[in-house]
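Table S4 entry, Pimeloyl-ACP methyl ester carboxylesterase.
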Amino acid sequence: MVEKAFSIPVDGGTLSGVEMGEGLPVVFLHAGVCDHRMWREQMQLAAEMGWHAIAYDRRGYGEAKSEDVAFSHLDDLEAVLASFDIHAAIFVGCSMGGGLAIDFALRHPGRVIGLVLIGTSVTGAPWSATEEESAIEMAEEDAWERGDLDLLNKVQAHEWLDGPRSRSGRVTGAARELFLDMNAKALAKPTLTAEIERPGAWRRVEQITAPTMLIVGEEDFSAIIDRHEHLSETMPNSFAAVLEGVAHIPSIERPDLINRMLEEYLEAFEDEDDDAD
């Protein structure tokens, strides 16, 4: 399936992304250490199954361009949907992309067909770290304060790709090369200082009734695993899975696992359509 590039003007900037396939839309929202390329294999799967797969780079990532102006990622997401004349979609989000999907679902519950949330962030969620996890957070902060972006990228690869409690360099090959390239692009971009803060979602997630698949890697931060368990108990129409041996970015570390789960999720909607017919 051939992907087609697109560019969408927004206030003070331009969002860039790719689309492929035709049918009902599946919108992929990337993690805060990645860009739209983290979803290549999942987009291909969705398109081959007869869905319209869309992924874009948010401001501060990938090929997106932005002046340092006031903006909202929620408003930008709405601009993307409007450009494709999309009223409702399935949203697949990882980390900060998942947090954006949650916030969109709370703002527009009638526009969310379903959610797939991987190691998701949640605005307003608590955070704590084990001693081992705190050590890598301190290394990250030190690299940031020294302005050593190359070192910072390597530390964040350990933190998010390998997992904070795993051996540095656990994930190798094309997955690591892709992560380092995506994150290097984000780190090299000018800091955007005027993002509009979104309302906290942590105490409102029970309002989300769309069918939701929750996924977390067992090598992820313990706070994210705890968050996953809370969401699975709180969101009324959710089902959850913990993936063994993977960390925060399983779509590139183990695309076979994520593709298999995504395929089953999308097939459930196709089965519902068949039953309705």
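The longest strand covers residues 13-20.
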